[in-house]
Amino acid sequence: MRVDLLMITWNRLPYVEKMLERLLGDPTDFRLYCWDNGSTDGTAELLRSVTDPRLHLLHTHHENVMQAEPTRWFLANATAELIGKVDDDTLVPTGWIEKISAAFNQHDELGMVGCWTFEPEDFERNRATAMRKVVDLGDCSLLHNAWIGGTAFLMRSSVATSYLVNGDGTSFPVDRLRMTRDGYLSGWYFPLLHAEHMDDPRSPNCMISGDGAPLALTAQRRGFSTSQPFVDWIKRDADKILNQSVRQQMALSRRKNMKRQLRKPVRYVRAAALRFKR
Predict the structure, then answer these.
(1) What is the pLDDT of residues 24-46, one digit of tens each?
(2) In this structure, what is the dihedral angle of CA atoms 118, 37, 146, 75, given to the nearest 10 degrees?
(3) Rounded to 5 degrees, what are φ and ψ at 262?
(4) CA distance 202 to 240
(5) Half-sphere exposure of residue 32, counting CA atoms within 13 Å on the CB side?
(6) What is the pTM assigned to this prediction?
(7) How far, in Å, are 25, 77, 213 from residue 195 at the CA level?
(8) d(CA 137, CA 114)
């Protein structure tokens, strides 16, 4: 089964060089769709220089529009039944497409299935609890979770289109929680296929600024000015994921949604009161 993959990038030349070398070093048949968000560091030139015929379509944009628009472009152009996404900071393991696509060939209930992008030590630290989340599918297994991150994964194109949302542009714009509510099984292929997340400071390929601050967008948004607090946050995130059941995750999601809905009328009343005072 042919697979179409999306890669979105912006000014990440050192990462893109490594990412492409690893991805295109895999002999698996796939088509790669690349969207450059207006890079000025040589990334666009590198992409234009690729001669591997699996780089099927390249779009160079004039500004950074993040992820939502490139994803819609990709879904409008991709023709494969299975689609996926590999971020420019991700080094995927050889053979990952074959293993995960084989699972989709056998199981219609699968939603998003991906490679493990935390460190192997994060799973091992929580192994006893995490093994309770492993679902035996017969010919393979799945470390079940209510959602997975938007890199190094596969899913059916029809499912991605059905659950596409506008989003805020910062993440893969597919409603993964609604997929789970509707009965799709998502998670990480098991035994885990480790994909190196180069933005994790524990990666030997992680880019750090001259003053020691992590350059990862997530780290910048959360105000991490040094690597260790960012690493600690990543570890806590992995621990929480591996120690919460899918049922608990969905219950927490419902409570958060209820709180958001309850806050909406308050904002409306306050806005109305301000208008009345004027």
Answers:
(1) 999 999 999 999 999 999 999 99
(2) -130
(3) -70, -30
(4) 19
(5) 25
(6) 0.91
(7) 14, 26, 23
(8) 15
